[in-house]
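Project standup — Tuesday

K.O.: blocked on the structure for the chain from last sprint. Re-posting the sequence here as requested.
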Amino acid sequence: MSLAERLQPKQPKVWVYDIETSPHLAYTYNLYGADIRPDMIVEPSRMLCWAGMWMGGHKVAFYSEHHHDRTKMVKQLWLALDEADIVVTYNGKGFDNKHVMREFVLAGLGPPSPWQDVDLLKENRRLFKFASNRLGYVTETLGLDTKLDTGTGLWRRVLEGDEKAWALFKRYCVQDTRATASLAQFLWPYLRLPHVGLWSGNTKACPSCGGTDLTPMGKTYTKTASYPRLICACGAWCKVISSGQTRPI
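H.V.: unblocked you, prediction finished:
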């Protein structure tokens, strides 16, 4: 690594990932409104595969129980999450993260080092009123990379070990990750994010991107105080507190 590279301000490591899971397999007496007790479960849901990438990079990592083995699949995701400062998902707080943590505890792994979550589904619901908050709909509406259409019944062929189905399943999971990363990059100035200055050491820079191209834009007001207001070249707004540090608005 060159001296110039070593002197670059440190940026948080942002990991974007998506998982695919199997459905529960269970006995049931009814097709609608089924009351399934735990003793009726034949095989609980499990993680089948995952895809992930570092923001700012291009390579998407992929691991599955089919292409590798379950131990390696789970361990590699643990290592990525352990390295991450910020983790970006679409419904990760309600789905992906919980499935993944179950896999870790079942594998006898301790928890990875803590990270900051950015769940784009929660952010979409907080910020916008799209007709649908499904990832494919939002990305298509914004003209971004979007989900891959796989038709119906793919998961069943995957569980049967069909090679062609697994190839498509891999493309589907990888594309979900690319779509999530594309959406995160597009929405970055809108998002509630940890202050980048916590990593770079410059807490007077833009909290969203760490940039210093900040333009004064009057003041912002709370019910009891006012603060100088700035807009960054990345599009994010921030305020300046009495210490001279910036804070998201």
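K.O.: great, moving the ticket to review. The chain has eight helices and eleven strands. Residues 3-190 form a domain with the Nucleotidyltransferase; domain 5 fold (CATH 3.30.420.10).
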